[in-house]
Fold 10 kDa heat shock protein.
Amino acid sequence: MWLLLFNIAPNATSNRVMNTADLDEGSFWRLVDLPPTFFWLIVSGLSVLGSCYAFVLCELISTRARVGRVVPFKEGFGRIPVWTNILGRTFTRPSDQGSVTERVSSAVKSSYDLVHTKMNCTMKIADLVVETIMLIQILEAGSPITLAAGFTVITASNALAFATLIWIPNRNVALTENLIDLVFDVLIVIGYPVLVLGASTIADPVQRAIIDKSLGSLQINSLLAFFTRIGVNAALCIRLHRVVSLLQDRKQQRGSIYPKRQRLPAAMLLMYVSLLVIFVAESLRTSAAVWKPHPECAVYARRWTVWEGSSRDKCPCLMLIDCEFGPKTYSEWLQPKDVTTKVADLAAAGLL
């Protein structure tokens, strides 16, 4: 719901969260409204997701109602277990036809479990891919290091948890597996945006610029951002539905949604985590090294920058702020400082 409100009325939502409604007549953040066509696309997609969340909530409420309902005891029901045992012995007598039926049923169940497991693994891998794309978008938006590091920790922990689940031998952990996936989806969909919106300290133009860029990264302003946000929300909705289904039918909790004792996939996930951490660390280090000679650059893209010699001045600057509002001496007034070269250097990367 908050994501829908933020994209429908970004300035009003930001003012509500940041308590800045009295500044600049409610237009303090000056977030750009979306084009009409793209606006209705986002509203439609998020409305469908909202309906799915409402459906899952209704399922959860109905489950609690059924669990809380008590069936009255009657004396006439006392003979039912006897007839159940008789019928059970009658229909479970060994026969060739029964054996064939059991084998066919077992084969069908095994095929279904295999397909179900493959679908779950594919969905989990797609989830990690979407989270990686979102992490790259966060780095390119010049978000603060704490936010980028926090999202990296969530994504890496998600992959490590997946590797652990496909490595452990226990197969009766379906509910645990779904709950773990649900926790990480909640952190991605709700936890990280709340952390961004909670950055409400405004002290100077540089901090305001950083917060402005962080808020802009939450806004859906491209098709790629649309599909990534819809994807993570759809994954969260599916996880919630699965958890509710497991609570309704305890027999399903005896199974597992992921394959077990898979060494190669677990090793590949560990390699993915290592490469992800290296990529983020090098992106932060190299971009900071290129930015260091340019303190006028308030916000810069935290990308992995390869520089040699004169290319070092190509800072991936996103926003330039000159905090010197006026000349301090009479000579500076007569001969103002020429910043044309500085602006040209910061604009060389094509991001300013």
Notes: Confidence is low (pLDDT under 50) at residues 70-97, 200-204. The radius of gyration is 28 Å.
